[in-house]
Write a structure and sequence with these properties.
With 244 residues, this protein is an all-alpha fold. The protein has one domain. Helices cover 80% and strands 0% of the residues.
């Protein structure tokens, strides 16, 4: 990797970290002090866009051509999804807008699942044991649906929560599997491992916010992007050759 690219990546990552701290503080004060602002949503979308730039910049410094292409598609899809979800959360709350964003995220997550699992190649050995390990992650989704069932039904989010939630659970499983079964170089696998957990926590807290449950929702609103931007940084950087 050239010095120029390293410096550029450092600037982008530092910028995202700085922006993240600023919108977390702004969200906190806007909720608990009480004032309207458009700073946070705009800065969040900028952070998402910058993470996509990290993925798009990989080029010849990637682990493989296929891996680079998958990240180059998954991240812009997520950025487009962010535009719809952020619009729904801040400016124009509408079920169609929300579901449109969810569709973009579904395709983005599907690509990441295929990428992290290497097309589920790790299931060729100890298949039953590894599948059962993966199925155990669905306990989290079941607990969430049981606890918030009434709220999910009330807001017509039950079906999308089960469908998208299942994908997110599989994404968590494959992200952890990438590390456990050494599907990537160690440094990359660690980034995928931690990034996938952070992404899962983002979706968990984001879903809590979407339910608009007093007390829970405010915490979810602040925490979702606090988990999201680190996940974006780590998953985007995981596509680079980092051990040469």
């Amino acid at each position: 990797m050239s010095i120029v690219k390293k410096v550029t990546l450092g600037i982008i990552v530092s910028t995202i970290i700085g922006l993240t701290g600023s919108f977390i503080a702004t969200d906190y004060f806007s909720i608990f002090v009480g004032f309207d602002q458009n700073y946070s949503p705009i800065v969040k979308l900028i952070s998402s866009f910058l993470a996509s730039i990290i993925a798009i910049m990989i080029g010849k410094d990637g682990l493989s051509k296929a891996d680079t292409i998958m990240l180059g598609i998954a991240f812009p899809l997520a950025s487009i999804g962010d535009i719809f979800i952020t619009t729904n959360n801040y400016w124009y709350e509408n079920q169609i807008v929300f579901l449109t964003g969810a569709v973009f995220f579904i395709f983005s997550v599907l690509i990441l699942i295929i990428r992290h699992s290497k097309c589920f190649s790790f299931l060729k050995e100890d298949t039953l044991k590894r599948v059962l390990f993966g199925m155990s992650f669905f306990v989290i989704l079941i607990v969430i649906v049981v606890i918030f069932y009434n709220e999910l039904v009330k807001r017509d989010l039950l079906v999308i929560t089960i469908i998208y939630g299942s994908l997110v659970v599989v994404s968590l499983w494959t992200g952890i599997a990438a590390f456990i079964y050494k599907l990537f170089p160690q440094t990359n696998a660690i980034l995928i491992f931690v990034g996938s957990i952070s992404y899962f926590l983002m979706e968990l807290t984001g879903q809590i916010y979407n339910l608009r449950v007093p007390g829970w929702s405010e915490a979810g609103f602040i925490l979702s992007w606090a988990f999201y931007t680190p996940a974006l940084i780590m998953l985007a950087l995981s596509g680079y050759q980092l051990e040469n």
